[in-house]
Amino acid sequence: MTTGTKETQVNIHPTAIVHPGARIAGGVEIGPYSVIGEHVSIGKDTKIASHVLIEGWTTIGERNHIFPFSSIGTAPQDIGYKGEETYLIIGNDNVIRECATIHRATTKEERKTVIGDKNFLMAYSHVAHDCKLGDHIMMANSVALGGHIIIEDYAILGGMAAVHQFARIGAYAIVGGLTGVAMDIPPYVTASGSRAQLYGLNLVGLKRRGFSEETIATLKKAYKTIFRSGLTLEEALRKVQDEFRLSREVGHLVEFIRNSKRGVTR
To answer: Residue 194: which of 239, 168, 158 has the closest Cα?
Structure first.
C-alpha cells in the first residue's frame, strides 16, 4: 500500500500491521509481516524489512535500514520493570541487521536507551536497556551488551564479544571477538581475551581515521606511562597530564580513566 504525495509517500506492504497512532514520515518503507506499535515514530526514508517488530515508545530517525527479524523497542529484561513509559531513541543512517534486539530503558536512570548516528549493528547483536551508544560504532555478529553500557564514537566490537553491565568502551577502541569485557576499555586501545586485556593502541584504526603521526606518537607515550611504567595509576595520570597537557586526545584518555566506576582494564 502506497499513500500520500510524492514528498510524503509511504510504502507499507499489505501484510504489515501499523498502528493508526504510529507516526510514519515520508519515504518510509515497511515490509511484509512487520508490526509497528502505537507509540512508534519513524523518520523519513527509513527502510523496515519484512518480519520486523518495533514497539514501545520508540523514536527512529531518518535513512535507517532495519533488516528482517529484528526486535526494536521491546521491554527491558529487568525484573523490576512494570510496564512504565520508557524510551528507545535511534538516530539517523544506522544499519541494524537480521535478528538484532534493542530494548527500551528501565526507570533506573534517564528512562532512555540511545543509539546515535551511522552505526552498524550486525546480525544477532543485542543492545540492552539504558545503553548509550555514540556514532560510527560497529558491532559484529552476536555482540551482547548488558544494561547501562556507554560506547563512545568509532568503537569496534568483534563477533560474540560480551560487555558487562555498567561498563564503558572508549572512543576509537577495538575489542576482539569472543572477548569478555568486565571493566572499562579506555579510548584508542586494542583489547582482547576471554577476560579483556589491553594490547597497545588501535594503530590501524587511528591511522584509518586520520590521526596524525604526531598525535599517535603522543598517545603511545601516554599509554606506556599509564599502563607500563610501574607507577601507580594516579601517579601515571598526573605525569601524563603534566607532560601532554596540550593534547586533546590524551586529555580525553585521562578524563575517561578518572571517571571510571567499574575500574579500567589494564
So the answer is: 158
